[in-house]
Amino acid sequence: MRRSIPLPVPAALAAVLALAATAGCGGPGTGERAAGAAKPAAGPATSSAPAPVKVPPLSQEEARGVVKDVTLKVEADNFDAGYWKGVTEGPLLEQQLAVVETAKKYGTDREPRPADSPATDPAVHTWTTGKDDGSDRWILGAHEVQGYTVGDAGKEAVLRWSLFHQQKAGAPWLAALVARAPEPTDLPQVAVGPDGRAVTGGDTAELAADPAKVCGQYGDYMYTDAGAGGVKWSQDAVKRKAASAAQLERMRTSLGKGAKVDFGVDVNRGSHGPVWRTTDGGALVACTAVSKVYTEMGPGRSTTFSSSGWAGTTDIPWASYTQRIMGLTVLKVSAGAAGEVSVAAESNLPYSFDGTKYTG
Questions:
Q1: Minimal CA–CA distance to 119: which of 144, 94, 102?
Q2: Residue 189 has what DSSP assignment?
Q3: In whole angstroms, what is the distance from residue 274 CA to residue 140 CA?
Q4: DSSP 3-state assignment of 311?
Q5: Which residue(s) pair with 148 in the sheet?
Q6: Which of 34, 71, 128, 208 is placed for a possible disulfide with 334 were both Cys, Cβ 3.0 to 4.6 Å?
Q7: How far is it, in rounded angstroms, from Cα 243 to Cα 104?
Q8: Contacts by residues 20-27 (CB-CB < 8 Å, ≥ 24 positions apart)
Q9: Whole-angstrom Cα distance, residue 193 to residue 155?
Q10: Would you write out the chain's pLDDT as a tens digit for each of its 360 residues?
């Protein structure tokens, strides 16, 4: 169900999207030592709680198997909320549930996908986290997939970065985020420790930006007039912001006088998943935001879509409509206070649509 759509919010909207936290409590006498002499407990002796089962790091083969298996599930054209709750979490689950709600309003019919398929590299690259106790772990995957833009007649091979999460050993793996790298060769440069697991977290004081704040700063910079926010943004990020503003202005111009176009955004100021440390001392941080474009055609006017990221919305005269897009971005935060922050990968997915039909 991965479809990208060309809209004037943020800069990459016309880009191709790859097809895709115990506290104990006690009663009286449970302090450091209860008053009075201790008495032996009645009944048979009981053993202490067993030590956690040691879980070894995921092998490359295991991790690649997870990426391939869950990716196939995420590609399903499915409009059942229960299905998506079983294969996704976090941003992707939120996005898919919004798409399902839109389909309830307008139907599930889609325009045909492009028939031609590009040759793709079957290689799957993975980096994994985890602890010996079997607590939650993550996979950052990167592999080539077939990508296309809504309204485009062809496909191309693109590199998709994906995040997968397992809450505990033995639990199902769920897809949490996808983002397209600028080039098919742009693999994540993730640092790996002696045990084969990816290096995450650590001391972030000397990074170009605080990973706990950089998502909100990026959202403010890209979608508002708040300015750089004390962050040195890369030239690519500067160009993305400028291109987004220009695209929105072109949209207003093309609709002509009488039409109204309003833009807004809801930025998730926290990151998603771990802070992945890179081989050069930097970090990768996953961010999300939901942007909104409201369009009103004006008296006596309407527009139709020949293609759309939302099922059931094409070939209908719309007097006004609101399109919401989820932006999923992986930021590269450089090492050193004087370093810059750039966009390592980014995708924009259809979120929700709400329109008023033209009745003449």
A1: 144
A2: -
A3: 10
A4: coil
A5: 17
A6: 208
A7: 34
A8: 20/71, 20/74, 20/75, 20/145, 20/160, 20/178
A9: 38
A10: 454 444 433 333 333 333 332 222 233 232 222 233 333 344 444 445 555 557 899 999 999 999 999 999 998 889 999 999 999 999 999 999 999 999 999 999 877 766 666 666 679 999 999 988 889 999 999 999 887 777 666 678 889 999 999 999 899 999 999 999 999 899 999 999 999 999 999 999 999 999 999 999 999 999 998 899 999 999 999 999 999 999 999 999 998 888 999 999 999 999 999 999 999 999 999 999 999 999 999 999 999 998 888 999 999 999 999 999 999 999 999 999 999 999 999 999 999 999 999 998
Residue 213 DSSP class: T
The rounded distance, in Å, linking the Cα atoms of 183 and 192 is 23
Residue 171 and residue 126 in contact, taking contact as beta carbons nearer than 8 Å: no
Which of 3, 9, 1, 2 minimizes the C-alpha distance to 295? Answer: 9
Single-letter code of the amino acid located at 110: R
**Rounded to the nearest 10 degrees, how much is the dihedral formed by the CA atoms of 272, 345, 321, 312?**
-90
DSSP codes, 127-170: EE---TT---EEEEEEEEEEEEBTT-S--EEEEEEEEEEESSTT
| Paired tokens of 103 | 């389909």
User: Whole-angstrom Cα distance, residue 197 to residue 45?
Assistant: 40
Read off the tokens for 37. Answer: 């002499």
CA distance 357 to 321: 9
Please enumerate in sequence order all residues whose Cβ is within 8 A of that of 54, keeping only pairs 6 or more positions apart, or say none: 132, 133, 134
SS3 222: helix
Q: Give the pairing of strands 17-18 and 124-128.
A: unpaired
Q: Which residues contact 56 (CB under 8 A, 6 or more apart)?
A: 132
Backbone angles phi and psi of 228, in degrees to 5: -70, -20
Nearest to 293 by CA among 251, 231, 258: 251
Strands lying side by side in the sheet with 341-357: 260-277, 283-296, 318-333, 341-357
Q: Which residues pair with 244 in a beta bridge?
A: none
Q: Which two tokens stand for residue 185?
A: 């060769």
